[in-house]
Amino acid sequence: RVRKGISVVNQKGGVGKTTTVFNLAGALVLEGRRVLAVDLDAQASLTVSFGLDPSSYARTSHDLLTDDNTSAADVIAATGVDGLDIIPADIRLASADVLLREMIMRERILSTKLEKIADRYDVILFDCPPNLSTITINALVASTEAVVPMETQFYSIKAVDDLTRTFNLLAARMNHHLAVWMLPTKIDLRIKLTKEFLIGMEANFKDRMLTSIRTDANLAKAPMVKEPAVFSFPASRGSRDYRRIARELLAPVRAA
Amino acid sequence: RVRKGISVVNQKGGVGKTTTVFNLAGALVLEGRRVLAVDLDAQASLTVSFGLDPSSYARTSHDLLTDDNTSAADVIAATGVDGLDIIPADIRLASADVLLREMIMRERILSTKLEKIADRYDVILFDCPPNLSTITINALVASTEAVVPMETQFYSIKAVDDLTRTFNLLAARMNHHLAVWMLPTKIDLRIKLTKEFLIGMEANFKDRMLTSIRTDANLAKAPMVKEPAVFSFPASRGSRDYRRIARELLAPVRAA
Ligand SMILES: Nc1ncnc2c1ncn2[C@@H]1O[C@H](COP(=O)(O)OP(=O)(O)OP(=O)(O)O)[C@@H](O)[C@H]1O
Ligand SMILES: Nc1ncnc2c1ncn2[C@@H]1O[C@H](COP(=O)(O)OP(=O)(O)OP(=O)(O)O)[C@@H](O)[C@H]1O
Ligand SMILES: [Mg+2]
Ligand SMILES: [Mg+2]
Question: Chains A and B: how many Cβ contacts under 8 Å?
């Protein structure tokens, strides 16, 4: 396993997975860590967030997962930010799951290949697609921790239940235990429903809760200027919130 | 084909697909139409929106897609709203795509099975998962139209490009032509970025644009009371907006 592999995961769509990886990666670099961000979504949202063109890469995370002759070193690319590399994704990932199902040790492909470059990075972040496919399982198996972005909305409850079942399955079937952190996103405490929902989350997840990410238009703007908010909007709420999360995830007391 | 089959589709997550199917279905019932809503997402967000328990059904859309002996009539269930039925989903859909890939005529399974009950409904709505899998293709092939909910955000541009490629592929490979409508969601014109984005969308899609759905907390609350907003919050912005969309989609001039 990587020293510190963190999957940012939730099969519910649009909760802020990519926004979290993009901005947390920047925040971890500001904490002096060497970071690799892995884009595992066919939409390649993380890749385009850095202003990169998914179709410009001969090999991407699709090849890393489905081609035995592709190593991690073959697909690592620069992001333009010192100390932060990326493994880009492309649209072919949309049908990778079918190819993966036929492969032996299909859940451990990422973990095995990333071990070879593990010493080059302090943290590896995985941006997962909005599903619980073999690709997402690969990220979880290669990780020591999982961060679950959650909106304060009705559909989040069932999403977390389904996700918890997957974590329990990994522990039972593969003896793979993750430290799981909940990350409330798009938080606006002026909205009554949000406040009530947050109180429920805190009662439910107790010391498994990271501090909330507040709603901030600058987080939606950052990919338009191709830089995480910690660089493009350093004084913004969003930047401060992700810097705090970076410190929370690095704090020794947090290591499960 | 069904007289009027509408796929609500966008591989970008969290843009308002389920919210659109849930509330548009209610609005179409108020227009006097008999409606079937088909849940094709493993998250079963649409199923739980009506207060239904996905695990309480012996057979769901998963079986309709993967089991030759399951007919549409076998999986149709009541929603509690007169004139509105549902085909529920369940978590097993998460691995249905792999089973589908092995089947002959895999893209036409839904279309063929739904033809048998087509005369019972005026409109069939499909709530698609956040990907462009064989399941989503099945919905598109069974449809005459596609509604694409879009947020006014950076990631929407690439999402629509990728989606348009899929529509073009269907037309070229299967001679299947869809009337495609863009539906701006979560619109708040007080936000400058939203206004600018909307102007860009209108210039780009011209007469393919439906009227916007404004941001409305009641739309997020409606699934908590298990009834579309047109019934649970009839005076709300969200309810009015979805009633207008229902009329726009039914208007003869719209029929592509
Ligand atoms: N804290 C926040 N404040 C404001 N906007 C946010 C925040 N977090 C995310 N967003 C916006 O919400 C939308 C969804 O976020 P994002 O695309 O990161 O979610 P995701 O979970 O990666 O989606 P998908 O399931 O499609 O991969 C984006 O337009 C993003 O800019
Ligand atoms: N017009 C709106 N105003 C306010 N909230 C909205 C609106 N439309 C959708 N929402 C909220 O945004 C969130 C995402 O919507 P929804 O779950 O319908 O999207 P989706 O595209 O179906 O997501 P997925 O990709 O996970 O299937 C939900 O919490 C929903 O309540
Ligand atoms: Mg994403
Ligand atoms: Mg949905």
Answer: 90
Query: Over the stretch B222-251, which tens digit does the pLDDT of each residue have?
Result: 999 999 999 999 999 999 999 999 999 999
Residue B63 has pLDDT above 80, yes or no: yes
The CA distance from B103 to B92, in Å, is 17
For A199-233, how does the pLDDT look when each residue is reduced to its tens digit (9 = 90+)?
999 999 999 999 999 999 999 999 999 999 999 99
Return the closest-CA partner of residue A84 out of A136, A23, A165: A23
Cα dihedral B193, B197, B199, B204, rounded to 10, equals: 170
What is the Cα–Cα distance from A165 to B91, expressed in whole angstroms? Answer: 11
A105: which residues sit within 8 A by CB, 6+ positions away?
A: A112
**What is the pLDDT, as a whole number, of residue B102?**
85
Instruction: Sheet with A5-8: list strands edge to edge.
Output: A77-78, A84-87, A35-39, A123-127, A5-8, A145-150, A179-184
Could you tell me if A242 and A218 are in contact, meaning their C-beta atoms sit under 8 angstroms apart? Answer: no
Q: Which of B10, B15, B18, B218 to mutate to test the pocket of ligand 2 (most atoms within 8 A of CB)?
A: B18
H or E, element range at B17: helix B17-30
Tell if the CB–CB gap between A193 and B220 is shorter than 8 Å: yes
3-class state of residue A6 by DSSP: strand
| Cα–Cα distance, B140 to B144 (Å, whole number) | 8
Residue A54 — very low, low, confident or very high, per pLDDT cuts 50/70/90? very high
A109-149: pLDDT as tens digits: 999 999 999 999 999 999 999 999 999 999 999 999 999 99
Q: A113: how many CB neighbours lie within 10 A of its CB? A: 20
Kindly list the protein residues whose Cβ atom lies closer than 6 A to any atom of ligand 2: A 12-14, 130, 151, 153, 155; B 13-19, 41, 45, 130, 185-186, 213, 215-216, 219-220, 238
Between the CA of residue B163 and those of A28, A80, B85, B197, what are the distances in Å? 34, 29, 28, 19
Nearest partner of B138 among B4, B5, B240, B3, judged by Cα: B5
